[in-house]
Design the sequence.
């Protein structure tokens, strides 16, 4: 059986489900909105049984051959001491903190049990650090933008003077929240003279990079050594010239398939092996001087905008990969059981 760990609203998971259903292969989808109960977890023998109340089913570790971590987290029911219990507030807070830590320790062990199966990514891959990845990418021979994290106007001004044009972007995944009828989001922006206040007061550490003058953006989906690239003609619109995610609804960017040079693909593969990430979305740019510049990798990033316009059918590829992993692992287990029976 295949286990998909995701969230209810994730469209990519919905698409994978369609392919698995068409293949008539057994799977279960666990969303972060589901509430799970641990029925049994033993070390010797190594057994785990989970009950998903809203799904009306039990899931046994022995039946799982493959896992895809898409996004989200597994949430298990935990009985905390309620406010109306009458327990001293300080004591109640400490007891609940203890119970949460107990639950977290158990959940970590369950993740380890799940991802010991043949898996595409794990929950650890959702916590990527852009600075660490940039350093690893540089070590793997990929060109990266000159990068600085600075907390003073003087340092930022000097960095801007060095490169002429610089951009500022989130260190983490950035904000994207609805506020009434509006969508509040953070994008990559160019740092202008007006952004640099005149005094030397300390500011929050800012993630800065040289602005690469682009020919086009590249979104690449990677899975186990294969790169599927899409060109994004972001320079055709002022909206998307700095950050292609600032979509231009009136004049959308063209996103045709793109063939990466084999050397670039090899370096990407080396990086992903170094990061121990089997599947993810990668952002690069092709500069006007012909350089391929690495920006970041997001193991839980969207890939529909690569799959559909380019007719890559990535959802089918992921589905087939999971089915192969599931059959391979369960086949090995069946063979071992037969050997033991014959002895």
Sequence:
């Amino acid at each position: 059986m295949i286990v998909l760990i995701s969230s209810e609203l994730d469209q990519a998971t919905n698409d994978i489900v369609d392919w698995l259903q068409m293949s008539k292969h057994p799977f279960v989808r666990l969303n972060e909105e589901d509430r799970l109960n641990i029925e049994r977890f033993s070390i010797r023998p190594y057994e785990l049984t989970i009950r998903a109340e809203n799904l009306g089913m039990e899931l046994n570790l022995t039946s799982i051959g493959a896992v895809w971590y898409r996004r989200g987290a597994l949430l298990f029911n935990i009985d905390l001491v309620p406010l109306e219990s009458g327990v001293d507030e300080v004591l109640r807070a400490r007891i609940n903190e203890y119970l949460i830590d107990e639950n977290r320790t158990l959940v970590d062990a369950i993740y380890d049990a799940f991802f010991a199966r043949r898996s595409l990514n794990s929950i650890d891959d959702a916590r990527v650090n852009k600075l660490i990845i940039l350093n690893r990418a540089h070590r793997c021979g990929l060109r990266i933008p000159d990068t600085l994290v600075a907390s003073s106007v003087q340092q930022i001004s000097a960095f801007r003077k060095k490169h002429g044009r610089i951009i500022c972007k989130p260190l983490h995944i950035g904000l994207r929240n609805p506020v009434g009828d509006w969508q509040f989001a953070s994008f990559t922006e160019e740092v202008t003279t007006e952004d640099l206040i005149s005094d030397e007061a300390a500011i929050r550490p800012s993630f800065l990079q040289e602005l690469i003058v682009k020919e086009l953006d590249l979104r690449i989906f990677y899975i186990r050594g294969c790169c599927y690239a899409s060109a994004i003609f972001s320079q055709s619109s002022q909206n998307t010239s700095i950050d292609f995610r600032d979509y231009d609804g009136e004049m959308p960017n063209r996103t045709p398939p793109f063939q990466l040079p084999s050397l670039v693909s090899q370096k990407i593969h080396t990086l992903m092996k170094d990061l121990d990430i089997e599947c993810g979305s990668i952002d690069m740019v092709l500069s006007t001087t012909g350089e391929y510049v690495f920006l970041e990798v997001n193991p839980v990033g969207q890939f529909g905008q690569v799959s559909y316009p380019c007719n890559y059918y990535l959802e089918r590829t992921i589905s087939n990969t999971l089915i192969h992993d599931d059959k391979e692992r369960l086949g090995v287990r069946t063979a071992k059981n037969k050997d033991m029976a014959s002895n």
Summary: The first helix runs from residue 11 to 23. The first strand starts at residue 2 and ends at 6.
